[in-house]
User: What shape does this take?
Amino acid sequence: MEGKMPKNFEPDSRFVDRLEWQLASEFRRKDRLKPAAGKVAVPRYVVALSLAAGVLLMGVAATKAADLIKDSWRKKIEVARLETEVKLKRAFLDFKKEAMAKAERQVSMGLIHEDDALVSKLGVERAASDLKRSLVDLEEVKASGKAPRNELYAPAVGGRDFVSERLEIDKRTLEVDLGLRRGRTERNLKEKVDLGLIPKSGWEDFQASLAVQEAEVGDIEKRLDLRRRLLAGEISAEEMEIQDRTTAAERDLRQARSSVASFQRRLELLRAKQAVGVISESEIQGYQFALDAAQAELNLALQQIDILKKLK
Assistant: This one.
């Protein structure tokens, strides 16, 4: 905006004269010169420019100070929140450890099966992972002064890749859970299927869910690789975003296909029961609605993948 400076910001002539005198005194003091009669000739435009620059610098400093104060409060609040979260999760982990120790004692006395103690062990693993994740969040907040960021394009903080650290924790949690399901749950479920206690479709659903979970571990590995390549400058942020969204859409497609297949199997069983008058049509309608919803999710995932392929 052009024009004269507002009057409120124009230096008063007496103030300018006084400033000229102060400048002259300072010059004489530094140069160790004797006082001379009259004023040192300091051009008025120099004084005016000095004043204008001072006003601007003061404004910038004030704004910066306000931002620092604001950021400081934001950081304090976020740190306090996460410190409280860490305390709660540490207490919860201790509780889970006590439950696991109790389960192990019961196993040693023959009160429960050894497989049942694995559930307590998984609870400890999950609680430990959850606590570790909150500790990583807390360390990031202390380092950056901002809330934790999980986007693959988020910058490293102080040379530390917090995003990848959290992804590694999530991967480890999935792997532990998958290991337990493959061991205890798969064995117990197979025995019940063989004994005819549950239908074969239940076994098929379980195997499908295992396949989905295994794929989720693979998805995290893909995200870790994308993150590494982005930080190394091997791919652009746009390329990374497209690939990450494609991975997410492919995951949604897998889950939707698994759900569609599962609901279709259940509906076949229910219709067979309906044919002999065991169940009514209203009981089937709920599963039909779920099947339609899963099919809609499947179609949406296919559309997303198609759009993302065209962006490459």
Summary: Confidence is low (pLDDT under 50) at residues 1-11, 32-40, 45-49, 62-70. The chain is about 80% helix and 0% strand. The CA atoms of residues 140 and 160 lie 9 Å apart. The chain has three domains: 7-42, 72-150, 186-312.
